[in-house]
Structure formats: C-alpha cells, structure tokens
Design a protein that fits this description.
It is rod-shaped and about 105 Å long. Helix 1 (4-16) crosses helix 2 and helix 1 (4-16) packs across helix 4 (60-88). Among the domains are: 4-88, Winged helix-like DNA-binding domain superfamily/Winged helix DNA-binding domain (Arc Repressor Mutant, subunit A), CATH 1.10.10.10; 92-164 and 268-294, 3-Layer(aba) Sandwich (D-Maltodextrin-Binding Protein, domain 2). By secondary structure, the chain is of the alpha/beta class. The strands form five sheets. It has a five-stranded mixed beta sheet with strand order 4-3-5-14-6, covered by helices on one side. The chain has ten helices and 14 strands.
C-alpha cells in the first residue's frame, strides 16, 4: 500500500505550484520532498508531473490523481479537527454519585447551570448514600462528605470545602420551652436523629478551649434520612442536627434557629473523588471546575452552600426582617420539652 503521506505531499506541491513552496508549508527539505514525489510516481508506474526549470504542470493522469489526493487530504484534516474538538469539548456521558442530602440541598440546584454551559454532556447522577466503587461500577466522580480522607485509597481527591453539623430547633419550640444555654440542657428536650443507640440520641459536642460534652437525649423521631429529619425539626418535633449546607436557608429565613453556637459537632470534608488525572475526559474536568467555581469557600475553608430554593445563580434573598423586640424566652419547664405539647 502506498504511503498516504505522499498523497498529501503531492496535493501540496500542485496547490503551491512548486516544490519549494510546498516544502515550506510541510516543513520538509525541498530535496526530500522531490524524492518522495519521484518515488510515488515510480510506485504508481505513471508520470504525474511535467517538470521544467521554470514551472510544474500536471499530466492527464496527474490531474485525476490530484483530485483524489485533495479529497484524502481534506478528509484527513477534517478527521483531525473532529478528534481535537472531541478531546477539548466536554461531551458524552458523565457518571457521578452523590449523597442524598448533598444532592438535594447543594448539587441539584447546580446541575441546570452546568448543562446549559455544556449541553453536549449527558450527566448521570446516582443519588445514594451507598459508598460506590469507582472502578468496579464505572463511576467517573464520587462526591462525598467524610470526617477524614484517610480511607480514600488510591482515588484522587479534590476538596470542595468543610461542612459543619449545626444544632437547630424551630422558633415555636424555643418559644414554648425556652432556649438551652448549656449542652446539659439538651437532655430536657426531645430530639430527632438518625439513630438512637441504647434508646438515646447522642450528641458529641466540642466546646470552647477543648471542652467536650456528650448529651444523651430522648428520641422523638428517628430516621436515616436528613431531609425527613429537617421536616421534623421544622415542625417543632424536637432539637436536631443538620449540615450547614442544608439548613443555612432555613436559618436565614427564620424558619430555624441555631442553638448553642459556641459548641460544634464533627465537621465533614466535602470532596470529590476520581481515579486518575491522566486521560481525564473534558466532561469530568469541566464538572470539577464548575463545582470549584460554584461551591465557593469562605476564608476558613467552610463550604458556602447553595440555596435549594433559588439555585446557584439565583439572586440573593433579602435578609429576613427581624421583629423590633424579641421577648425573653421562658425558662424550660421541669421535665422533658416536646414540640408536640408534651407527653
């Protein structure tokens, strides 16, 4: 089979009208280019060019062969351009796994903006709290929230920010039963939580100057889904813990109030895990860049959440109007406080 490069060389020589002009375009020595065309003619067994000291002209066979060479060259250039576009333009399937609450409160509102920017990407979002195996399950990117990154194995990690668990309660519950001022006060309140080992919802709190406290609270509602717990807390069922990215809007709008702000729960590192930087698809790279752009961090590295109501690009909501005066909360009544009028 003939070297297809010779067909390109021949087309360039004819189009430039000289070996010297074609050699400059191709980046080849003129003598080498002349030898390649002569070899091509020998392999074909026909003269393609009439050569004189002043000009080149095509033979009848050369005219026909030139048309085919131009077609081959143009198709090769088109194929190269298409490949370059595929390698640089985000397109095709992108499989991402994400925990349920993070998807509902933060990632979900970002998806329309990303797909509007990159309409040729087909995003497949697996919303599950199950830990996925990136290689075994063919997942391109796993979004996770964990206290540490020690168990990330060989995955490449991109940190997106920190998430803090906040103790929150509804204003109605606090008006009815008072506001806890010490961690020990939590034990007088009904609690909502994801588990109740030994019949108690346990809160391990970190306070000023390294102080620690574990509160064991009576469970009013236990569910393994944070959105369900959020509804219970909003309804005044009890005091609960929610990730900041999930409840910041409720706090800003006055639907929830943070309690014991000087005490914190274990922070979670919001991060993206993927297998390798080598050969990373443009779709994956663009999605990581988009998350880094939209999930901004404050100077302390805390994740600035996205409103589940308005989305990432929605205008900021006006600050809630506070009443002119807030009556002092009544002290907690003896016994256990319940948002359902007691037991």
């Amino acid at each position: 089979m003939h070297d297809l490069n010779d067909m390109r060389y021949f087309a360039e020589v004819v189009d430039h009208g000289s070996f010297a002009g074609a050699a400059r375009t191709l980046g080849l020595p003129t003598s080498r280019l002349s030898r390649r065309i002569a070899r091509l003619e020998a392999e074909l067994g026909v003269r393609l060019l009439h050569r004189t000291t002043r000009k080149l002209s095509l033979t009848a066979a050369g005219e026909q062969y030139h048309r085919h060479c131009v077609a081959v060259r143009d198709q090769a250039d088109q194929a190269q351009a298409e490949l370059a576009r595929i390698l640089t333009e985000p397109r095709g399937p992108l499989r991402v796994s994400c925990p349920v609450t993070l998807a509902q409160a933060t990632i979900g509102p970002l998806i329309p903006g990303y797909l509007a920017r990159h309409p040729k990407v087909r995003l497949e979002l697996q919303v599950s709290n199950r830990v996925v195996d990136l290689a075994e399950e063919g997942v391109d990117l796993a979004l996770r929230v964990r206290p540490t990154l020690d168990d990330s194995g060989s995955a490449i990690i991109k940190r997106l920010g920190l998430s803090h668990g906040l103790l929150v309660a509804s204003p109605e519950l606090l008006r009815r039963h008072g506001r806890p001022v010490r961690p020990a006060d939590l034990e007088r309140f009904d609690a909502v939580g994801m588990s109740a080992a030994g019949g108690k919802v346990r809160r391990r709190l970190l306070g000023p100057q390294g102080a620690r406290h574990e509160a064991a609270c009576r469970p009013a509602c236990v569910a393994d889904d944070l959105m369900t717990l959020r509804f219970a807390i909003l309804g005044g069922v009890g005091v609960g813990m929610l990730p900041d990215y999930m409840c910041h809007e409720d706090i800003a709008q006055g639907r929830l109030e943070r309690i014991l702000p000087d005490w914190s729960l274990v922070s979670g590192i919001v991060h993206a895990a993927y297998l390798s930087r080598r050969g990373m698809s443009p779709a994956l790279r663009s999605f990581l860049d988009y998350l880094g752009e939209k999930l901004s961090q404050d100077p302390d590295g805390d994740l600035v959440g996205v409103s589940p109501l308005g989305g990432a690009d929605a205008p900021a909501a006006a600050a809630p109007t506070r009443p002119a005066a807030t009556p002092s909360p009544r002290p907690a009544r003896p016994g256990r406080a319940s948002g359902r009028g007691g037991r």
